[in-house]
Design a protein that fits this description.
With 369 residues, this protein is an alpha/beta fold. It has two domains: 15-226, TIM Barrel (Alpha-Beta Barrel); 244-340, Lyase, Ornithine Decarboxylase, Chain A, domain 1. The chain is 30% helix and 24% strand. The protein has twelve helices and 17 strands. The protein has helices at residues 15-26, 37-41, 45-54, 65-73, 91-96, 106-119, 140-151, 174-192, 205-210, 223-226, 342-349, 353-358; strands at residues 9-13, 31-35, 59-62, 80-82, 100-103, 123-128, 156-162, 199-201, 218-221, 244-256, 274-279, 294-297, 300-305, 313-316, 328-335, 338-340, 366-368. Helix 4 links the parallel strand 3 and strand 4. Helix 1 (15-26) crosses helix 3 (45-54). The longest helix is centred in the middle third of the chain and has 19 residues, at 174-192. The chain binds pyridoxal-5'-phosphate.
Length: 369
């Protein structure tokens, strides 16, 4: 890591941890789709996808066409499914690169067939069923007709059928069980008509951890691979560890006198002389402006005080902590015995861990260990 001394803030991604996490899911009956959308939840799509495939994932899942193309351009030859909507005018670009598309209307199927002719190869399609999330997907009663349309049309292949759970990490299992029931009913209809495709998939990380019986042919794993917790009420269990550490360098350490305001707007003024460390990270890096977060310094937990600015934050140095300009502060990760998890930062910011790591901006270099 030659440039690290020059970095103000950076993220270290432990690909060994990521592979170990993925292997836990790859031991199952079902194949694993590594969900690497949104730059692999901020971890870096291409290195994460490569590591996941090495560790036994068969598929990569993304949300957008450009994310799929990024993987192909990097030389990844694995099956890739775009889980989200692609404008039909761009179908041909996906089909030309053997990227599988998600569809849920008859018009989309027709557009995919036309694009397949243009691209000179068959369109690989996954039908999305709306089993209760009511975001994307066909109504249960429409899936069989769509499957038949794909089956009866040259130039398109029904490769998969899938649905997504709305409440998988929540305490109450009933909404998920209801969705699973609807999913299974639709698969039953498809089987009876001889139209069940090879890849039927429903489970995300939370469902894979809670209900192995939901696995089907494929499980779509995001959070679990990154070692992040699905929710406050659903722990990852042993053997899954966070892969990402986010660090920033201390720029200055100074004593600020009692009554003096710190940072923009002087929203914080210490009631006694306090040692303040200024750290080179800010909202330009994805560190939220909302107050209440904590950072690790010298193995101690320090409060962020004053406003978060674009490139800097100010911390109140806790009793016993020593630091100098150039030292590392840990925003997410471990330092000595102390740990700052993406989940803790999310709680301070009133959000979820997904948003914290997805929000680490492009300005923050990612280093791979
Ligand atoms: C359709 C779909 N499947 C699977 C996943 C992976 O979910 P998780 O990160 O909870 O494993 C996502 C993530 O949001 C998704 O949108």
């Amino acid at each position: 890591m030659p440039q690290i001394e020059g970095y103000a803030t950076w993220a270290e991604v432990d690909l060994g941890a990521l592979r170990a996490n993925l292997r836990q899911f790859a031991r199952r009956q079902a194949a694993v789709m590594a969900v690497v959308k949104a730059n692999a939840y901020g971890h870096g799509a291409v290195p994460v996808a490569r590591a996941a495939l090495q560790a036994g994932a068969l598929w990569c899942g993304v949300a957008r066409l450009d994310e799929a193309l990024e993987l192909r351009r990097a030389g990844l030859a694995c099956p890739i499914l775009i889980l989200g909507a692609v404008p039909p005018s761009a179908y041909a670009a996906a089909i030309a690169d053997a990227i599988s598309l998600t569809v849920w209307t008859s018009e989309q199927v027709a557009a995919a067939v036309a694009a397949a002719q243009q691209a000179g190869r068959s369109a690989r399609l996954h039908l999305k069923l709306d089993s209760g999330m009511h975001r994307l997907g066909a109504a249960p009663e429409d899936v069989l007709g769509l499957a038949r349309q794909i089956h009866d049309t040259e130039g398109a292949e029904l490769e998969g059928v899938f649905s997504h759970l709305a409440c998988a990490p929540d305490l109450d299992p009933n909404p998920s069980l209801k969705q699973q029931h609807i999913f299974q009913q639709v698969l039953g209809e498809l089987s009876a008509a001889g139209l069940r495709p090879t890849w039927c998939h429903l489970a995300n990380t939370a469902a894979a951890l809670r209900w192995p019986e939901m696995d089907c042919d494929l499980v779509r794993i995001g959070l679990g691979m990154y070692g992040m917790q699905p929710s406050e009420v659903l722990d990852l269990g042993p053997g899954l560890h966070p892969a990402l550490t986010w660090k920033a360098r201390i720029a200055q350490v100074k004593v600020v006198a009692s009554g003096e305001g710190i940072g923009y707007g002087h929203i914080y003024a210490p009631g006694r002389d306090e040692t303040i460390a200024t750290v080179s990270v800010g909202y330009g890096d994805g560190y939220r402006r909302r107050p209440g977060a904590q950072v690790l310094i010298d193995g101690h937990t320090a409060d962020v005080v004053g406003r978060v600015s674009m490139d800097q934050i100010t911390l109140r140095l806790p009793e016993g902590a020593q630091c100098r300009p150039g030292d590392e502060a840990v925003l997410i990760g471990r330092q000595g015995q102390a740990e700052a998890r993406a989940e803790t930062l999310a709680a301070a910011w009133g959000t979820i861990n997904y948003e914290v790591t997805c929000g680490i901006s492009a300005r923050v270099p990612r280093l791979y260990l």
